[in-house]
Amino acid sequence: MNKISTDSADVSLVSSIPDRAVVAISGFNMATTPEYLIMGLYKRFKDTGHPKSIFIETDALPAAPGRALDSVFSEIYQRGDFDFIRGMLIPFLGFSPWLQKATLDNKLAIYGWPIGVTVYWFREIASGRPGLLTKIGIDTFLDPRNDGGALNDRAKEDRECRITLMPIDNHEYLLYRAPKPEFALIRVTSSDKLGNLTMEDEAIRGTVLSIAQATKAMPDRGMVIAQVKRILENGIMNPRQVEVPYPLVDQVVYSPAKYHWQSTSFEYDPRASLKLPGEVLPQSLLKSTETAKTIDQVIAARRVLAALVELCREKSEPLLINLGVGIPSSISSMLEQAKLSDRIITVVESGPWGGLALGGVDFGVSFGSFALSTIPDMFSNYEGGIIDAAALGFLQVEESGGVNSSYLPTKLTGPGGFPVIAEGAPRTFFTGSFTAGHGQYQVQDGKLVIEKDGPINKFVKKVEKKFFSGREAVKNGQEIFYVTERAMFRLKNGHLVLEEVAPGVDIDRDILGRMEFSPEVSDDLKEYDLGKLLDGWTC
Q: Domain 295-533 adopts which CATH fold?
């Protein structure tokens, strides 16, 4: 019989985790994050000094600003005691400012594998294999000839997670290896008295099953501890809804509601839940919650949307696309407003199909999705090129088309889902503002007026850290575009070609003069139709 704790004050079940344990934790921001177990584990360390020097492995990021792991690292800095965690394998740090600080301060070893690589690594370990073999990461910071996935010097020194170059039949592959998890902290909605787990109120399905299986796999069978918000009687669960069967579960802990939020900004919203058969959400609930707010963001997002509409018309059937965080996420609300969401279907890396993808700290959650995959299953759509296109953000673009999505010397958000999506999609639109820093833009008489340009160049000779390889994209025959408010480039033969500009900009001053390299200028250079970009389309 599994141990079921119905006392919301009881987190003693984490006391079985010893020093130097390898602990896998589920979580995509606050979705599927077992915050109660995380805080209970850290409380035990504060009270007893144990467990210390644990190593954490996670499928995305079990944190949000001031919540879960971010709260832990905030306390760690206040206490000045860094003995709790020795290192982490974590794909994304963007919504945890204190974890970013600890990484940049080199307080612990941080390895930044992409989400798609990490979740499939859990599946490979669950299957008894030594690691994940994939082409994802060649000629990027993941390549062992570069950083080998290490996000700071401690990780480069410790090498607890390793990436090895593996040539096979004259092609280069990477083998990703990390310590097998000994304990798992996962989160679901309900458990029966046996320990069968369901996720009916969760906003995503995440990677909880793969994490549990990886922990239970031979040769060393580990322990799985699940956080739930309700305990049910045996025999009333629909077996098709059971996400984790009870033989894979060792302990179940009932959590207070304040530690079991669907997403970062709300405890529960029916728009985010997996709907039961016959349950229909009113269209009034599907109103936009976030749109691009500045004119440069609107122009860039709508230029990508115009390209997607054109592609949809050419294909003559629904288009399947992925939207990344930042400017791309606002395209989802634009699709809803233009009533195009049944023709251009969005998927989000956390698992939702369709609906309205949320942005900001709620990224990963969608309202009104018509299907909900696990994260590993969703990433098959990316790495396998099943989607038609992806729209992703960028921080820097280099001369050969390589992209830095998330690293600056003072800010490090990690790769997230970016490397797998960008390398797998047959066509990718990297979109963002042309320059960085505070800029001011207006549209007057159909022309873009740059009242104040951003002071920082984003098109540079060489990026700070490469998360996407233009060279590999050329080898793979991908279509790659770089879309901003004033210019659109295409990657051709290993270099950028300027194909479109916004009317009103001075090409030499506002585009070429703000780049650290010279792109080719197309003989058929076109202008944006800003009136159309600020209006709408059908397909």
A: Glutaconate Coenzyme A-transferase (3.40.1080)
Give the residue numbers marked as catalytic: 349
CB 503 within 8 A of CB 530: yes
Please tell me the number of Cα atoms within 13 Å of 94 on its side-chain side: 22
Contact 37, 227 (CB under 8 A): yes
Is the pTM for the entire model greater than 0.90?
Answer: yes
Tell me the CATH architecture of domain 16-189+204-227.
Answer: 3-Layer(aba) Sandwich (3.40)
In this predicted model, what pLDDT tens digit does every residue of 300-309 receive, in sequence order? 999 999 999 9
DSSP label at residue 31: B
Q: For 69-112, what is each residue's pLDDT tens digit?
A: 999 999 999 999 999 999 999 999 999 999 999 999 999 999 99
E-strand stretches of 389-508: 389-393, 396-398, 403-404, 407-408, 411-412, 427-431, 435-436, 440-444, 447-452, 456-457, 459-460, 479-483, 487-492, 495-501
Give CATH 3.40.1080.10 domain extents, the chain.
Answer: 16-189+204-227, 295-533
Whether the predicted pLDDT of 1 surpasses 50: no
Can you read off the two tokens belonging to residue 479?
A: 């279509």
The better pLDDT of the pair 285, 275 is held by: 275
Cα separation of 259 and 39, whole Å?
A: 9
Nearest to 115 by CA among 416, 322, 419: 416
